Amino acid sequence: AQSVTQPDIHITVSEGASLELRCNYSYGATPYLFWYVQSPGQGLQLLLKYFSGDTLVQGIKGFEAEFKRSQSSFNLRKPSVHWSDAAEYFCAVGARYGNKLVFGAGTILRVKS
Amino acid sequence: NAGVTQTPKFQVLKTGQSMTLQCAQDMNHEYMSWYRQDPGMGLRLIHYSVGAGITDQGEVPNGYNVSRSTTEDFPLRLLSAAPSQTSVYFCASRPAPRTGIEQFFGPGTRLTVL
Fold it and tell me: Is A42 on the interface with B (CB under 8 A)?
């Protein structure tokens, strides 16, 4: 069965501190992996995506993620968090020839000053 | 490019009422989808389409209908609203696999069923 697990429902970090959001997936085919961010009352914005090549991918807003096939993980990182990064973050997995994205339950990031 | 647009932004219905959520995209994408978002559950696929005239069910299709008469539009119909359909609904589109894999999301419609 296809599934995405985001183990942390809430994470609080201090402004300027580093951030890592965890994502583990279970997927039968070659996974296409995504991280989306959602600010309150807004739609979803794509941060980054991975489907092949270099396992460390760079995204927008200074985010990066590393694909580890052996661990079925695709963790999101940022070296220094800004207050504007406070939002909910979703990891998702899909296939090239398909319309369905399977989403994790999301991680709510709080940034304290 | 407006991208993916959805109307209305907010809607309140009474149990048993019907309504249509509108979705349009101007990117000439072949694939379109409807998701619902509920707290603690992420987004779940309701229905999707891989081209005009072609639709299929997703993970949670019960109580919803779709049609795709044009490439641009993909309306979602609630046949007889129930409180369990209170949710935020997102429409998404993506290009055919030969040209891209990213899904683009609309701003969402927040629906409350009383």
Answer: yes
Kindly indicate the confidence band of residue B73, based on its pLDDT and cuts at 50, 70 and 90: very high
3-state secondary structure of A60: helix
Confidence of residue A95 (pLDDT cuts 50, 70, 90): confident
**Cα–Cα nearest to A10, from A111, A79, A92, A102:** A111
Q: Which residues contact B30 (CB under 8 A, 6 or more apart)?
A: B50, B51, B71, B95, B96
Assess contact for B71 and B95: CB atoms under 8 A: no
List A residues 53-112 in contact with B (Cβ-Cβ < 8 A).
Answer: 90, 92, 94, 96-97, 99-101, 103-106
Give the angle subtended at the CA of B24 by the CAs of A90 and B47, to the nearest 5°. Answer: 60
Asked if the model's pLDDT at residue B100 lies above 80, the reply is no
